[in-house]
Amino acid sequence: MPKRAVTLNMADLAERAGVSIATVSRALSGAPGVSEETRRRIKELAADLSYAVSPDAARLARGATGRVAVVTPDVAHWFYAAMLDGIVTGLHGTDLDVLLYEVKEERERRRFFAELPARRQVDALVLVALPISDDERRRLDLMGVTVVMAGGTLGDHPHVRIDDVAAGRQATAQLIRAGHERIAMINSTGTWSLEYAAPGARLRGFTGALEDAGIEVRPDLVVHRRWGSHGGVEGMNELLSLPEPPTAVVAFSDEVAFGALRTLRRAGVPVPYAISVVGIDDHHLADMFDLTTVHQPVTRQGLVAGQLVDRILHQGDLTSPHVTLPTHVVARGTTGPPPEPSVRRPGR
């Protein structure tokens, strides 16, 4: 006849085993200070009585929640989804659970930092490429938990990122090496009132590469549009309407580049024979578009961030808390040398 499950607490188990509650706790948690014979006997008794230690109770007993909060602007977009995949993979095999907070709208982001729903519920907070105000950063500091930024920086807090200045420089240098001089950039503006750091950093990389090559930085060849493919459509339309359109374009991101390519296709402008296009990110669809781009290791940034959290919480290790992963150009079919003067490029 099967044994009937008995509702027990640790004190009941200690009484039946004839040991202290502390001995039962150490035996079941694998902590030192208990003989192997006593540990085996307590585990067998616990199994016989269908007793299981509450994970939450065990965590609270050692002053930890065992949870990590991940705050992201989006869970569906490829960048944030890839980052989340990396974070979860980095925490796989640990005793840490993940709480996910999506702050897609401006009001949701403000409410999160005003109320801090993760307060006293987590041991660490991972922010995914999230712009933070000075006031919000001070509120995070008051939580007294480990805060890690994945895909950006946040003061002295640990972070994992790429060098966006270097990415902008690499994209531009690819076009300079091909012989282009009339190079434009479609930069992006964020969707929130707070500015993202990446647009400014990638623009500095763009202008820096041009200046190093002795090429004039023309203000009319730098346009700013809302982040996304629609911004690429609008930005490319504006550049094609110039009396002297560019021979090459650096797009803030691959999504912006996709929109720019659509505009060029509809305008009958051959790529790369009339205009070359370079993106940044190496989106999972970049290969399908045959887009030359600068690869950034998105999933790996999340993976390293997750590992960093685990290392800090379990080992107190703050060795190299600021990690910058390298980027590199992936050359595909949207870039080539500038057109010969005889090649006529239609405008809008």
Question: Termini, distance in Å?
Answer: 84 Å
Q: In angstroms, what is the radius of gyration?
A: 27 Å
Helix content: 40-55%
Strand order of the largest sheet: 2-1-3-4-5-11
Shape: elongated
Low-confidence sequence ranges: 1-6, 56-63
CATH superfamily of the largest domain: Response regulator
Number of helices: 12
CATH topology of the largest domain: Rossmann fold
CATH class of the largest domain: Alpha Beta
Q: Write the element-wise H/E pattern from the N-terminal end onward.
A: HHHHEHEHEHEEHEHEHEHEEHEE
Strand content: 15-25%
Number of strands: 12
Biggest sheet record? 6 strands, parallel
Give a structural overview.
The protein is an alpha/beta fold and 348 residues long. Mean pLDDT is 87; it is low at 1-6 and 56-63. Helix 7 (134-143) links the parallel strand 3 and strand 4. The chain has helices spanning 10-17, 21-29, 36-48, 55-61, 78-91, 106-115, 134-143, 164-177, 197-212, 229-240, 254-266, 298-315, and strands at 67-72, 97-102, 124-128, 146-150, 159-162, 183-189, 222-226, 248-251, 276-281, 292-295, 322-325, 328-330. The chain has twelve helices and twelve strands. The protein has a six-stranded parallel β-sheet. The protein has a six-stranded mixed β-sheet with strand order 7-6-8-9-10-12, with helices on both faces. Helix 2 packs across helix 3 and helix 5 (78-91) packs parallel to helix 12 (298-315). The chain has three domains: 10-53, 434 Repressor (Amino-terminal Domain), CATH 1.10.260.40; 67-161 and 298-324, Response regulator (Rossmann fold); 164-296, Response regulator (Rossmann fold).
